[in-house]
Design goal:
Beta-lactamase, about 270 residues, globular, alpha+beta
């Protein structure tokens, strides 16, 4: 099938059109099998060395290692808990800073992943610095888990991998039971208020999902995984496409609001 078309309408006028490509492990396909980077949708796999290193992780610790959080209080507390387990402080995080976020490096949306990486290094006796280096034992282990692929550096400084959407879906479906169970149990930690992945996991109990940058979204449930990719990288087009493919009715229309919170348009599937 052709790529899914999503329109952005203000009043009666269409201001933008986005194309969304999809590949699923059951053969469902829309558009092209786009080759791109996994970005933050890789986090449930990047958290595997952390899970392998500790048998007694609480669900909040493992969930926050899979998260792209919004620096909400419960999320920051979960990151602190992982750092305490590792016996390190936030200064050791190599994720840098994000403008407008609280608590320095701790407030970065990838700090949970980085805290889990530090804890994995401590448990394995690996050097803490630079754990982001592609040649570090931690990153080599993650590369093994992904099956390799073209490497670039993600926004938070760690390696990310490029592959076709169909391969991403296959990889996402291999998320270990412990990791997926933690995500399912604590969806509010994975994204946060209003986040696409958090809201989808609440709409589809028992499924797990992870959004990524540049309009990427991976979700799995009932033995099937889907990867969505907005061609121009606009995340705002994801919800109507997800609604169309997965039948999540509450995602079908996204309101366009003014700065006074007035609804002035909508993002929907193209007629």
């Amino acid at each position: 099938m052709d790529a899914i078309r999503v329109t952005v309408r203000r009043g009666a006028v269409v201001e933008a059109v986005h194309r969304v490509h999809v590949r699923a492990t059951d053969g469902t396909s829309y558009g092209d099998d786009v080759y791109c980077f996994l970005r933050s949708s890789l986090k449930p796999i990047q958290a595997i060395p952390f899970a392998e290193a500790y048998e007694d992780l609480d669900t909040d610790e493992l969930a926050i290692a899979c998260a792209s959080h919004q620096a909400e209080p419960a999320q920051l507390e979960a990151v602190r808990k992982v750092l305490a387990r590792a016996g390190v402080d936030a200064d050791e995080l190599e994720n840098g800073y994000q403008v407008g976020r609280p608590d320095g490096k701790l407030g970065h949306n990838c700090s949970g992943k980085h805290a889990g990486m530090l804890a994995a290094c401590v448990a394995n006796g690996w050097s803490l610095h630079s754990y982001c280096d592609p040649d570090h034992p931690l990153q080599r282990r993650i590369a093994e888990l992904t099956g390799g692929g073209e490497i670039a550096i993600d926004g938070c400084g760690v390696p990310t991998f490029a592959m076709p959407l169909a391969q991403m879906s296959q990889l996402f479906l291999t998320t270990p039971q412990r990791n997926r169970a933690a995500m399912i149990a604590r969806p509010e930690l994975i994204g946060g208020s209003g986040a696409d992945d958090t809201d989808l996991m609440r709409a589809k109990p028992g499924w797990w999902a992870k959004r990524g940058a540049e309009g990427l979204f991976c979700v799995a449930g009932d033995g099937i995984a889907w990867t969505f990719k907005v061609e121009d990288g606009a995340n705002r087009a994801l919800r109507p496409a997800i609604a169309h493919v997965l039948g999540v009715d509450e995602f079908a229309e996204v309101p366009v609001r003014s700065s006074t919170d007035e609804v002035v348009g909508a993002i929907t599937l193209a007629p």
